[in-house]
Amino acid sequence: MMVLITYDVNTTTEAGRKRLRLVAKQCVNYGQRVQNSVFECLVDPAQFAQLRHRLEEIIDQEKDSLRYYYLGSNWKNRVEHVGAKSTFDPEGTLIV
Amino acid sequence: MMVLITYDVNTTTEAGRKRLRLVAKQCVNYGQRVQNSVFECLVDPAQFAQLRHRLEEIIDQEKDSLRYYYLGSNWKNRVEHVGAKSTFDPEGTLIV
């Protein structure tokens, strides 16, 4: 299943940028970083359970938020992109 | 229909922050700012055509990107939130 994950984090702090790097690192195991803090992950239920467990350990739940959108099987018809197409290097310095 | 709009913009610049404010201002006419640059908009096709036209005029298409996710009618079952629940003031200073 396709799960869209959006991560809201304060990237003006080094700690926030680090959490974003860690979240990205987990998400790109299962999919694609389509925007700086938006990930499209193709997972089965067991993988998703594992992924979200990891993500929820990484984030600061007092400050950050994660949203999961279950896009279903017909997800390719549900997505449209406008503007710059960036390629993000999950290991590199992030541009925020 | 529910359209999820994610906006990728460099908010380290004043110009980027301004574009985000303008995008947010348009989106909140139709829905909710659920994260700093993630909006859930309930629109009919005509409203959506108008909204996206405005957004695509605001953004810098060389630098920024917008993604539209058509969540369909069953969208409430497709969304899950973890962590901080922020209320964003679209007119105020944005926390990035």
From TrEMBL, chains A, B:
GO molecular function, one term: metal ion binding
Cofactor requirement: Mg(2+)
Keyword Ligase: no
Residues that bind Mg(2+): 8
Keywords: Antiviral defense, Endonuclease, Hydrolase, Magnesium, Metal-binding, Nuclease
UniProt record, GO biological process: defense response to virus; maintenance of CRISPR repeat elements
Pfam family of the protein (one): CRISPR_Cas2
Cited Gene3D superfamilies: 3.30.70.240
Protein EC: 3.1.-.-
InterPro entries found in the cross-reference section: CRISPR_associated_Cas2, Virulence_VapD/CRISPR_Cas2
Entries under CDD domains matching the protein: Cas2_I_II_III
PANTHER family associated with the record: CRISPR-ASSOCIATED ENDORIBONUCLEASE CAS2, CRISPR-ASSOCIATED ENDORIBONUCLEASE CAS2 3
Entry's family note: Belongs to the CRISPR-associated endoribonuclease Cas2 protein family.
Quaternary structure and partners: Homodimer, forms a heterotetramer with a Cas1 homodimer.
UniProt function note: CRISPR (clustered regularly interspaced short palindromic repeat), is an adaptive immune system that provides protection against mobile genetic elements (viruses, transposable elements and conjugative plasmids). CRISPR clusters contain sequences complementary to antecedent mobile elements and target invading nucleic acids. CRISPR clusters are transcribed and processed into CRISPR RNA (crRNA). Functions as a ssRNA-specific endoribonuclease. Involved in the integration of spacer DNA into the CRISPR cassette.
Protein name: CRISPR-associated endoribonuclease Cas2
Organism of this sequence: Thermincola potens (strain JR)
Gene from which this protein is expressed: cas2
